[in-house]
Each structure stands twice: as C-alpha cells, then as structure tokens.
C-alpha cells in the first residue's frame, strides 16, 4: 500500500516537472553588437587645410543605437581622415567596451 | 491512498487538458536594412499561433539564418520553443488588442504594453508565397508604409512583429522604403505544444507612450551633450528606428 502511494506521488511530481520545463523562460540578456561603420565627409577649406568629418555607428539587434561623429583638420587629407575616423572609431569602441561587449571588426558579425 | 489517487488524477487531468491544442509554427526571416549601416541584418524568427488561444512571435537575435534548425526529424519533442538569452518576444492573447513585447532603448530592455493599430487597405493584387494564395494589403504605421501579403488558406489569423488586423496570416511583409522585411520560410503544425504563455516579465511593464517618451528624453539628452574637443564632434541616436520615436519640434 505504501509503495503504491510513493509511486503515485513520484508520478505526480514528474508530471508537474514536465509541465514546468516546457514553459519558455528568458535567460540573462547578453549584449551583441552587429557592426561599426565609418562614413566620411570631406570639406576642403583651402589648399592648406583639409577637414574631415567621420562617423562610427553602433548597431544592436539590427537597429542603429548610437552614432559617434568626429571632425578633424590637418594639412593632408589622409592625416585629417585618419584623425577623424580614428577618434570616431575609438569613441564607438570605448562605448561598446563600457557596455560589456567586444568591439566587432568593421563588416564582421553576422551581417550579410 | 484515496487522497493520493485523487491528487494524481487531478494533476494528470490538468496536464492532459492543456496538451491537445493545434499550434501553427511559421518560420520567417526578419531583415533590417538601415541606410546608416553598410550591410543589412537578417534574423530567424518564428510565429506560434495556437487555435483558440494566443500568438507568440519570437526573434532569435543570437542566431544567424545558417544556424537555424532545419531538420524536421530532429525537433525537440513536446515543445519547439527553444529560448535563448538574446531572443525577443511579442505576445498576444487571442482576441486581445494588447500586444506585450520586449524592446530596448540603446541597450536597456523594457517590457512594453502596446496597442498597435493598422488601417489596412485591401487590394486586388495577389501572389503565391510557399504555395499559398496571398492577397496584398497596405497600411501606414508609425512613419512607414507597409505592403503585406496574407493568406486565408490556413483558416487562422496571425502576423509577425506588431502587425495585426488582417483576416488571415501574413506570409510576406515589407516597408516600401526597403528598411524592414519579414518573409515566411516554412509552415509546420504541432499537436503537442503546451498552451502559449507570456514569457516576458510583466512586473515592470511600461506603455508604448512611456517607451516613446523615454526614448525622446534620451535623444535630446544626447543632442545637448558636449563631447570631444573639436567643433563638429557629437554623439547622436536616430529619430526613427523601425518606428518614428522622436517627433519634430516646431
């Protein structure tokens, strides 16, 4: 008699467990970054000064969450571009690192 | 003994009573292609429609389309809802206009209670999607114009994301500006899935208007922030995500 009681109780617990395990639960959200991109606008003030504005964009779950725009001037176009884009990229990377993520390589991740 | 037997029958009947629903599982590819980004992103997603019950739309942000489970013989028994940390959900009780979903402002997530309204215009255009006859409908929704193809062949109603209100199931929908597109990739039916339940934490739920106000506050906060050393340095976030979130101030 006692054995049957025990078996029935165990069967009941087992059934409840199946029901509980089949219901979805959300785990802790993990940060995931899709891409960082740079865009450049070149403005030549005169023959001696090149001004470049560069943006680094951070996206998350496929949508743009933040854009870092930085401007730099220099004697050569290459120098101005390197400074502006370097600062924009650096701001984006620092931001991502501050959120607990790893900066992706441009064009990397799971984008098409 | 009598008490234990009654208890067991009670537990067993609860379980049996909940398992005989027919659930339609429609798999989609969800594509976002924002012009500010160099590439588009595609995520696998699934819509669970339970006849006489609820709908649950799940987007798997942590999974690439290549990683999707495609083998129909290798599906988990009893429940096909495999949940990961990076998943987003949209849950609606049948007949209910309220949609509950997960959304984020930058990286902070919120459970949002929303009542999205679509004034669909049905057209005579049609096409076949996955072999099903689909009729075209159009609607404007929060800053974008959408064209949707829905089928009445399945005898059920449902739609992915926030779409709602068509007399069938949407199998293909896209914004005409090319930013957003959801395309059905497969349809399955199951008889052994538990009743769909809201998987989201509703204890700290906010309304759509509260969400929009929070986003707007963050947007202007960032706009007024002084950053960097040079002129022309600024940080920003877009006024429009999939929906228009910051209205122009006159």
UniProtKB/TrEMBL annotation, chain A:
Signal sequence annotation: 1-20
Q: Which UniProt keywords apply?
A: Signal
Tree of life domain: Bacteria
**Name by which UniProt lists this protein:** Uncharacterized protein
Q: What is the lineage of its organism?
A: Bacteria, Pseudomonadati, Bacteroidota, Flavobacteriia, Flavobacteriales
UniProtKB/TrEMBL annotation, chain B:
Domain of life where this protein originates: Bacteria
Which InterPro entries does the record cross-reference, listed alphabetically? GLPGLI
Q: Which Pfam families match?
A: PNGase_F-II_N
| Protein's UniProt name | GLPGLI family protein
